[in-house]
Backbone:
């Protein structure tokens, strides 16, 4: 634990990817969790189940009323968490349930951050032990202010790119990337899909050519076989969201074993 405390959040993210490679896994596993869903205490328990199941990192979503990047399952979890009374402070407290075991990267929409002020929000992340931040609706051109504040606290601002992102923009995003690049596998919102995109190797290779940090793939990965396919296509990390959020609502007792199945699929 003392070693963890001595590392910055950005260093912990890097170490998680390096550890996955060193241990022979084809990619690091990053399950997504909606803070406050089905309720606050159970979301803490689910975070612990993610760790016990073999997660290398965790992406923690902060409930928001208009999650434009998310499909119906995660959107419904947002609504349910807010209806149950989840607020930003409570949601961020979920980080403390697991941060000594794995790095936690918070996913939060820009309005929530701006409502509290950039500096105060950066302080909150540092106080709870978060390692980084993903802001899906933050344009590259508006990112420098929050990136500077996070850099000063040792936290990573993780950018997103899409299959349609042009090379010139990929170069600029890659140069500013911290932690990893979140690569969206498809155009559209989050959600489970029947098949993996056959063009994933090309998408991942193009992103990697413009970045010096790991490349993680998300959106549409809903089965262990799809996770394995993402790793085989060249992803350094695999992000699994909708399938696990659905399980959290329908069968929370099965979450640990489900995460373990994804982890096993990424083992060499």
Residues:
């Amino acid at each position: 634990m003392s070693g963890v405390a001595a590392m910055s959040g950005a260093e912990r993210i890097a170490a998680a990817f390096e550890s996955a490679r060193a241990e022979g896994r084809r990619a690091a596993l990053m399950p997504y969790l909606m803070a406050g869903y089905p309720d606050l205490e159970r979301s803490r328990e689910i975070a612990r189940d993610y760790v016990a199941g073999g997660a290398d990192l965790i992406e923690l979503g902060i409930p928001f009323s208009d999650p434009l990047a998310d499909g119906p399952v995660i959107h419904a979890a947002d609504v349910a968490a807010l209806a149950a009374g989840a607020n930003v402070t409570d949601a961020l407290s979920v980080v403390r349930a697991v941060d000594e075991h794995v790095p936690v990267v918070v996913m939060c929409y820009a309005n929530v951050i701006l409502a509290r002020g950039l500096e105060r929000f950066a302080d909150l992340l540092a106080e709870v032990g978060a390692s980084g931040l993903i802001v899906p609706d933050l344009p590259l051109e508006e990112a420098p202010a929050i990136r500077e504040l996070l850099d000063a606290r040792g936290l990573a601002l993780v950018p997103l790119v899409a299959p349609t992102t042009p090379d010139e923009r990929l170069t600029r995003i890659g140069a500013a990337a911290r932690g990893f690049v979140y690569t969206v596998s498809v155009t559209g919102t989050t959600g489970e899909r029947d098949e993996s995109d056959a063009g994933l190797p090309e998408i991942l290779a193009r992103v990697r050519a413009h970045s010096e940090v790991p490349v993680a793939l998300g959106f549409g990965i809903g089965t262990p076989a799809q996770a394995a396919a993402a790793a085989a296509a060249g992803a350094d990390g695999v992000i699994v969201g909708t399938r696990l959020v659905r399980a959290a609502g329908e069968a929370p007792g099965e979450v640990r074993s489900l995460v373990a199945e994804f982890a096993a699929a990424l083992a060499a």
